[in-house]
UniProtKB/TrEMBL annotation:
GO terms for molecular function: hydrolase activity, acting on glycosyl bonds. This is Phosphodiester glycosidase family protein. It comes from the Bacteria. Residues 178-357 form the Phosphodiester glycosidase domain. Keywords: Glycosidase, Hydrolase. It holds the Pfam family NAGPA.
Length: 358
């Protein structure tokens, strides 16, 4: 390129840059204040407005939730209060219903107790309620023992010294087992210097000498696993097993069934005619009744006849009644004291005794 051309290019470039150079010199030499118009500030966007509304709505929601929670809490407290009141009312109704349900039993108990007279002594515990009565009879002195069993272990039949063939007085059995009450049990037979229970005898659910079918006038009497008096004549073991016997003994004869007298075999009407007696019976509410009669010997001249025992059982409202071993075997022990007057002059050693525990 020629020198003339270079000079022409430089002039042209200088002319093009001159306005910018002037503007730069002015800005550097003076303070410039820039002011933007209102249009330069954009209006809040729609999204920004929506965000504020959502925040307000959230706050309002929280306030509503708090009010709702307070209302729910009050409702829950009210429901709990209502539940507690209803529960208390139901408990009161149940207590009243239970009391009303027990009322017929109390009335029945008062009625049968009134027939026996006023109790001379009472034993009350969690296991049982026992009442001892001195009964007014014309021809003999007698005692009544009314017992309500409350627990399964309140009554037991024990073998003499806890062994088959063993024997002990009712008082000895009471002291050995720490029992509160004792009454003689079933009949017995002596052999080889030992005293064995007569016929079918059950202790703690076990047959002592196996099952023996009823013969002649023998019967079995005892308690079932549900503490109900069971008894009668059994020709087959399955008949007795069906009643779930817990314990029991055998003797003669049956005196009362379903409130009615049974026919007393002629042999037992006169052999002996009168004697010390022990009878076991039950009431409609499953309470037990023992009648014990004193006599000064076994010769038939003192004590009660079996027919008189039937009369007493009916008079006192019993349902079923069974004659236990009598004569010198008749024994009644109450709170460690012998109540009756044994005809032998002292208590006889026996193979079985009914015991009651506080």
């Amino acid at each position: 390129m020629s020198a003339a051309s270079i000079r022409l290019f430089n002039r042209t470039l200088l002319l093009a840059c001159t306005p910018f150079l002037g503007l730069l010199i002015w800005m550097l030499s003076d303070t410039v204040a820039l002011k933007l118009s209102e249009e330069a500030y954009p209006s809040p966007s729609v999204h920004s407005v929506d965000l504020d509304a959502a925040a307000v709505q959230s706050l309002e929601g929280l306030d509503h939730a708090e009010v709702l929670a307070q209302g729910t809490g009050q409702s829950i407290r009210k429901q709990i209060s209502l539940y507690n009141k209803t529960n208390a009312d139901m408990n009161q109704i149940a207590a009243i219903a239970s009391k009303q349900a027990a009322r017929p039993h109390l009335i029945y108990d008062r009625r049968i107790t009134a027939k026996l007279g006023k109790p001379a002594s009472t034993i009350q515990s969690d296991r049982l309620q026992a009442q001892l009565f001195y009964v007014n009879t014309q021809n003999f002195r007698s005692y009544a023992l009314k017992i309500k069993l409350k627990q399964d272990d309140a009554m037991q039949l024990v073998l003499g010294k806890d062994e088959n063939g063993g024997s002990e007085t009712t008082l000895e059995a009471v002291k050995r087992t720490n029992a509160a009450i004792g009454v003689n049990g079933g009949g017995f037979a002596d052999s080889g210097g030992k005293r064995y229970p007569l016929s079918t005898t059950i202790v703690n659910g076990d047959y002592v000498s196996g099952f023996q079918a009823t013969f002649k006038d023998l019967f079995f009497v005892g308690l079932s696993q549900s503490n109900k008096l069971i008894g009668g004549k059994y020709t087959d073991k399955s008949q007795l097993d069906a009643q779930s016997p817990k314990f029991g003994a055998s003797f003669v004869p049956v005196l009362l069934q379903n409130g009615r007298k049974t026919e007393i075999p002629s042999k037992w009407q006169t052999s002996p005619k009168r004697a010390p007696r022990t009878v076991i019976a039950n009431y409609k509410d499953d309470q037990l009744l023992f009648l014990v009669v004193d006599g000064y010997n076994e010769q038939g001249s003192s004590g009660a006849t079996l027919a008189e025992m039937q009369i007493l059982l009916q008079r006192y409202g019993a349902v079923n009644g069974y004659n236990l071993d009598g004569g010198g075997s008749t024994s009644l022990v109450w709170n460690g004291r012998v109540i009756n007057q044994p005809s032998d002059g002292q208590l006889r050693k026996l193979p079985t005794n009914f015991l009651f525990f506080k």
